[in-house]
Specification:
Blueprint lengths: L16 E9 L5 E3 L2 H14 L12 E3 L10 E4 L4 E4 L5 E9 L9 E6 L5 E3 L2 H12 L4 E3 L7 E4 L4 E4 L5 E8 L5 E3 L14 H4 L87 E2 L27 E4 L7 H6 L10 H8 E4 L34 E4 L5 E3 H9 L7 E2 L6 E2 L10 E7 L11 E7 L3 E2 L10 E2 L6 E6 L2 H15 L4 E4 L9 E4 L22 H11 L4 H6 L1
Antiparallel strand pairs: 1-2, 1-6, 1-13, 3-4, 4-5, 5-6, 7-8, 7-12, 9-10, 10-11, 11-12, 14-21, 15-21, 16-17, 17-18, 19-20, 21-22, 22-25, 23-24, 26-27
Length: 575
C-alpha cells in the first residue's frame, strides 16, 4: 500500500507529559512506527542526550536499536541528522518523533494495521491510528482518511480499507498492546502554546539544542479536524530533515553508503495552497517604521513590494541585502565578454585542508563506513587521478581522519565553493556557502519594544524569495521549486547584540545560508524553500510557539547557530 505523506497538524497542548512515538520513513514516503518497546528505548536515550550539543562526534549521539530489539541489530539512529542508518547496506531513512496526549491511541497501546500483499500486517503511522480510534469512538463506522492526506476509507464494521480511486480493498485490524512511552515536556514557566514541528525547530544543526532553550522543536502534537472541515494552517512553511549530508544536500548519489532518500509524494498531486495572506499582522499597521540607511547595491536581488501592514514613508526604500549567487560558468562569462575565473580544483581543495597519513588509524571512515585500512566506499563512483582509493588523510584543524576519496566525493556533491566541512564535528574549512535561491532581504526598524527588551526598539527583517527553477546545487536540478509563505518577517531587538546578530544574518544571507530547497515538515511538500538551521523569531508580541519573545537565550543561541555555519564576528572584520 502506497500512502502519501500526511500533513502535520498542531493543537494547543498544555499537559506537562505526553506519549512519544518514533517513526521511520520508507522510500515511498510512508511513515512506520517502531514498536512500543523500541520507542521506549529510543526515547530514554533521546531524553538523556537532548540537553547536549549535537554534532560532537559520529557515535556520541547514535542510538543502536539492537539493544532494544535483536532483530534491529543492523540499525542505528543518528540524532544529529535525524536518520536511521543500516550498517550492513548503508541505507539511510528519515526518522521523526511525535508526541500524543496520554489518552490517545498510542497512549493506550492501540495500533491499527493493514494486510500487505505478502500476508504480513503493517502498522499505520501513529497519527492515523489515533485518528481512526477517535472516529470509531464517535460512532463512525466508515472513516475517511482524506483529512490526513490519504486516499482511503476504513470500514470498521467490515474491517477493510478501500482505495477511493481503484476501489481495491485490504483487510485491517485493531491491535491492543503495551502503551507507548510517557515523556515529560520541558517548557518555560507559563508556556501553554502550540507545540511546534516547523523546520526551524526540527533542524538538527551542528550546534544542536543549546542548554536552556525550550526545545518544543522535537514535538508534533496532532489534532484531527472533522472530515468536512479542511485543516487550517497559520504556521509558516518550513522543511524537514533529510539524509545525513555535511552540506545539507541530498545524499551522495550512487554510493552504497548513502543512497538518496526518495521523499517524493507518490500521488504526484500538487500540494494544497496555503494561501497568500500577508505575514504582517494588522497590529503593526500603526507603527511608524524607520528605514535603515540603504546598504549595498541590490543588483541581482529580486525586488518585492512590502505587503500591507507597516506604513512606509513615500519615496523611501528599505535597506536591502543581495544574495551572493553562484558564479557564472566559464561559457557564460565568455559569452558576456568577461574573463573566466578558474574554479578551485576539487583535489587541490582536499589537499589544502588535510595531511595524508602513511598509516591509517584502526577506525571506520564515517562517510563510507568502511575501515580506513580498506579502500574507500566511493572508489567505484568517484574517479581521481591525484587521489587513490586507499589514501587516508586527517583534517588539519580537528584531526578527524577519512578516506581522501570520500572527502572528494562529499566535496563534489556540494557547492564546490572551495570550502569543506568536517562531517564529524562540523568544523568549517574555508568560506561555506549554501543553496539559498535568489531573493531579497530587507531591514527596517521601529520604536515599539519586544517583550523582554523594553529598553530599545525593534529591527524588522523581511525575507522574500519567489518561485523558481532549481539549480545544479539543489535536490532536483531543472525542476521548479515553490516558495510558500513569503515574504517572511522576523524580529530582533534594536540593541548592541541584536545589531550584531543582524550584521551576521546579512553575511549568512549573502552566503545563501538562511534558506535552502528541501521538504516541508509542515505540509510534506517537496521541492520548496525551507529554513536552513538558523533560528529566527517570527512573532513579535507573543511566544505561543516558541518563535517569539520573551526569550532571554535567543540571541546567544542564534550566534552559536551562525557560528556553526562559519559566520562569526571575524567575518564582520573582513568586510
Amino acid at each position: 500500500m502506497a500512502m502519501a505523506p500526511s500533513p502535520s497538524l498542531v493543537q494547543v497542548y498544555t499537559s506537562p507529559v505526553a506519549v512519544a512515538v518514533w517513526e521511520w520513513q520508507d522510500g515511498l514516503g510512508t511513515w512506520h512506527p517502531y514498536s512500543a518497546a523500541v520507542c521506549s528505548f529510543i526515547e530514554q536515550q533521546f531524553v538523556q542526550q537532548k540537553g547536549q550539543r549535537f554534532g560532537l562526534g559520529s557515535l556520541a549521539h547514535s542510538i543502536p536499536l539492537g539493544q532494544a530489539d535483536p532483530s534491529l541489530a543492523p540499525y542505528i539512529i543518528d540524532l544529529p541528522s535525524w536518520t536511521q542508518f543500516r550498517q550492513d547496506t548503508g541505507t539511510m531513512r528519515a526518522v521523526r518523533r511525535h508526541l500524543f496526549p496520554q489518552h490517545s491511541a498510542p497512549g493506550r497501546g492501540v495500533v491499527w494495521e493493514w494486510l500487505s500483499d505478502d500476508g504480513s500486517w503493517t502498522a499505520y503511522e501513529a497519527s492515523v491510528c489515533d485518528y481512526l480510534e477517535q472516529q470509531v469512538a464517535r460512532g463512525n463506522q466508515l472513516v475517511d482518511l482524506a483529512p490526513l492526506g490519504y486516499n482511503y476509507t476504513v470500514n470498521y464494521a467490515t474491517q477493510t480499507q478501500t482505495n477511493k480511486t481503484s476501489s481495491f480493498c485490504r483487510s485491517v485490524r485493531r491491535q491492543a498492546g503495551p502503551p507507548y512511552p510517557v515523556t515529560t515536556i520541558i517548557a518555560p514557566p507559563g508556556h501553554t502554546g502550540v507545540a511546534c514541528s516547523c523546520h526551524q525547530c526540527l533542524s538538527g544543526s551542528g550546534t544542536g539544542p543549546v542548554s536552556g532553550r525550550y526545545r518544543h522543536s522535537m514535538t508534533n502534537l496532532p489534532a484531527y479536524p472533522a472530515p468536512q472541515h479542511p485543516p487550517h494552517r497559520t504556521a509558516f512553511v518550513f522543511g524537514t530533515h533529510q539524509a545525513f549530508a555535511p552540506y545539507s544536500k541530498p545524499s551522495l548519489s550512487g554510493a552504497r553508503s548513502a543512497p538518496r532518500l526518495n521523499t517524493t509524494n507518490p500521488w504526484g498531486a500538487a500540494p494544497p495552497s496555503l494561501g497568500s495572506q500577508p505575514l504582517y499582522r494588522s497590529s503593526l499597521s500603526h507603527l511608524g517604521l524607520q528605514h535603515l540607511p540603504p546598504g549595498s547595491s541590490t543588483s541581482g536581488a529580486v525586488s518585492a513590494s512590502l505587503p500591507s501592514g507597516p506604513s512606509c514613508s513615500p519615496g523611501s526604500i528599505p535597506a536591502t541585502v543581495p544574495v551572493q549567487m553562484p558564479k557564472p560558468s566559464r561559457v557564460q562569462q565568455a559569452l558576456a565578454g568577461g574573463t573566466p575565473k578558474p574554479e578551485p580544483q576539487p583535489e587541490q581543495v582536499i589537499k589544502n585542508y588535510t595531511e595524508e597519513l602513511q598509516v591509517p588509524p584502526d577506525e571506520d571512515c564515517i562517510i563510507c563506513m568502511e575501515k580506513l585500512s580498506a579502500a574507500s566506499g566511493y572508489s567505484d563512483v568517484t574517479d581521481s587521478k591525484a587521489i587513490g582509493p586507499l589514501a587516508v588523510g586527517r583534517l588539519t584543524k580537528c584531526s578527524h581522519a577519512f578516506h581522501l576519496l570520500c572527502l572528494l566525493a562529499m566535496y563534489c556533491n556540494g557547492n564546490k565553493d572551495g570550502s569543506l566541512q568536517c562531517p564529524s564535528c562540523k568544523t568549517i574549512y574555508g568560506e561555506k556557502t549554501g543553496t539559498q535561491p535568489q531573493g531579497k532581504m530587507e531591514v527596517l526598524r521601529f520604536q515599539m519594544s519586544l517583550p523582554g527588551h523594553e529598553d530599545c526598539g525593534t529591527i524588522l527583517i523581511v525575507y522574500n524569495i519567489p518561485h523558481g527553477i532549481q539549480g545544479p546545487e539543489h535536490p532536483n536540478p531543472g525542476k521548479p521549486f515553490t516558495a510558500r509563505g513569503f515574504p517572511r518577517q522576523c524580529y530582533l531587538p534594536d540593541n548592541a547584540q541584536g545589531r550584531k546578530v543582524l550584521e551576521l544574518l546579512k553575511v549568512a544571507w549573502k552566503r545563501r545560508l538562511i534558506f535552502t530547497v528541501g521538504t516541508s515538515s509542515t505540509t510534506g511538500e517537496t521541492d520548496t524553500v525551507v529554513w536552513n538551521e538558523i533560528h529566527h523569531k517570527t512573532e513579535m508580541d507573543r511566544n505561543v510557539t516558541g518563535h517569539g519573545y520573551p526569550d532571554p537565550n535567543y540571541l546567544q543561541n542564534v550566534l552559536a547557530e551562525l557560528a556553526a555555519q562559519g559566520v562569526t564576528e571575524d567575518c564582520l572584520e573582513q568586510q
